[in-house]
Amino acid sequence: MKKSIFQKLFITYGITIILGFGILALVLMKLFSQYFIDSKKDLLLEYGQKITQDIAIGLYSGRLDRETLIEDLKILDKFLDARIWIIDRNGMIFGVSGTNEEQYLGQQVDNTRLGILYRGRNIIETGNFGGKFREPVLTVGYPIFYNDEFEGAVLVHASMPGIQKSFRDIYNITILAIIFSGLFAYVILYFQIKRISMPLMEISKAAKVISGGEFQKRLEIKTGDEIEELAKSFNDMAESLEKIEENRRNFIANISHDLRSPMTSIKGFVGGIMDGTIPPEMQGHYLNIVMDECQRLIKMTNELLELNNIQQGKVEVNKTNFELNEMLRRKLINFENEITKKNIDVMLKLHDDSTLVNADKAMMERIITNLLDNAVKFTEENGYISLRTREEKSKVVVEIINTCENVDEIEIKNMWERFHKGDQTRGIYKSGFGLGLSIVKEMIILQGEKIWADKLDGAIRFSFTIGKAK
Questions:
Q1: Which residues cross the membrane (predicted)?
Q2: Pick from 303, 320, 326, 389: which is nearest to 361 by CA?
Q3: What do you get for the CA distance between the two ends of the chain, in Å?
């Protein structure tokens, strides 16, 4: 069964928390155990030394009798929670701290331990002290020297189970704290993973909806982090897909209309010739119309193929150096008849007498021809067309401006689309741009240049860049 991202994260981080707290518990147990033993050892050493100095030496100097010594040892027994023995120079036990310790009176400490003490060294060990105890003890032995003579030693025995009990009490409290901290961490983990996984699941569901063709789906995720950025990017993608789908539908509708119109004309005229509706003397005229419509269909088909080849990278760019000003003047002359018929005022403003550029010359001729054709076509009578060039760093910017009323930013944005038609209610660009501007844009991009359009006061301006000659 496929696990959700919530399950994967919760299980993964859950195991990590368990292992982390488990290792922490083991480390603390080891540290606490050693800490309590070391602390007890230091305490026994400290008081072993005090007992030696304050009590045992007083005994050997005659300032302290044995009865007082035993009473003092009993007090220290309760304070240290340890058994205290006093041995003489021969290793015989003659003083103990507890009444239940009297069984050890008169017993002998083995020569090995006595030898260590005789040489002035302390004893620190754990075990049953040579079999004298049934349970393990921590033993600290401190030698007694009086007038530089070895007189005996103080032995302090702390029960290891007693030390371990104190350690276990602290350890249990620590473990409980770790458990509650772990549970609290689990609760935080649950909500944190929920906070992360739920938006991702929502994005996943939305992606499935989008893949089904419902491009209107949008996400409302406000997490203030990268997931929110992802949701915004997803919405941008969905909006782009919706726009692409809308363009696709418009493209199909527009191309269907542009194909149907000439084909309807051809069918009507050919049918009229065949059934005799069109008299023989008029057939030549209508056959010329049919030929024009066929040429129009061929041109449209060729432009579609050309645009497809450009977009698929099948068209090679052949950049050469050429004179731009000459090309602009020649292209303007080509439109002289149309300009004269509409009484259009033309202004040519070139930044220099000669401008050498580096680009694909054939493509640039197509680009300039198409842009000038649109400018002439959509400029009303008595309007104006301005053709300008200017330098901008390593580029030459060409601007073609023509009068155009009531054009808006939406029209400017959409005019690059294939077969885009302007607002029919305004009478702006009713005939549409066909594939011309789409091909122009792709040719510009193919050469690594930029093209854009912007609205001026009562006019529209097309601008594109060309690299300077190297």
A1: 12-37, 170-191
A2: 320
A3: 64
What average pLDDT does this structure show over 122-131?
82
330 pLDDT exceeds 50? yes
Say what angle helices 436-446 and 280-311 make with each other, to 10 degrees: 30
156 contacts 140 by C-beta, under 8 angstroms: yes
Token pair of 52, please? 């030696």
Residue 400, pLDDT score = 94
SS3 readout for 282-325? HHHHHHHHHHHHHHHHHHHHHHHHHHHHHHCCCCCCCEEEEEHH
Q: Point out which residues pair with 402 in neighbouring strands.
A: 385, 460
Q: Which residues contact 178 (CB under 8 A, 6 or more apart)?
A: 21, 24, 25, 28
Is-contact 377 431, C-beta < 8 A? Answer: yes
Which domains does the chain possess? Answer: 5-165 (3.30.450.20), 226-311 (1.10.287.130), 319-468 (3.30.565.10)
Q: In b/e form, how buried is each residue of 172-186, taking b as 16+ CB within 10 angstroms?
A: eeebeebeeebeebe
- Residue 137 main-chain phi, psi, to 5 deg: -135, 155
Residue 466 DSSP SS3: strand
pLDDT digits (tens, 9 = 90+) for 347-378: 999 998 899 999 999 889 989 998 999 899 88
Could you please report the per-residue DSSP string of 58-123?
HHHTTSS-HHHHHHHHHHHHHHHTSEEEEEETTSBEEEESSGGGGGGTT-B--HHHHHHHHTT--E
**CB neighbour burial string for 351-370, b if at least 16 within 10 angstroms, e if fewer:** eeeebebbbbbebbebbbbb
pLDDT in tens, 239-265: 888 887 877 776 677 677 667 777 888
Tokens describing residue 166? 């104190």
Q: pLDDT, tens digit, for every residue of 212-232?
A: 878 888 888 877 777 788 888
Q: Structure tokens of 333?
A: 């002359």
The CA distance from 36 to 166, in Å, is 8
The three-state (H, E, C) secondary structure of 37-48, written as one string:
HHHHHHHHHHHH
The arrangement of strands across the sheet holding 149-159 comes to 93-96, 83-88, 149-159, 137-146, 123-127
The answer to whether the beta carbons of residues 231 and 199 sit under 8 Å apart is: yes
Quote the distance between the C-alpha of residue 236 and its chain's center: 17
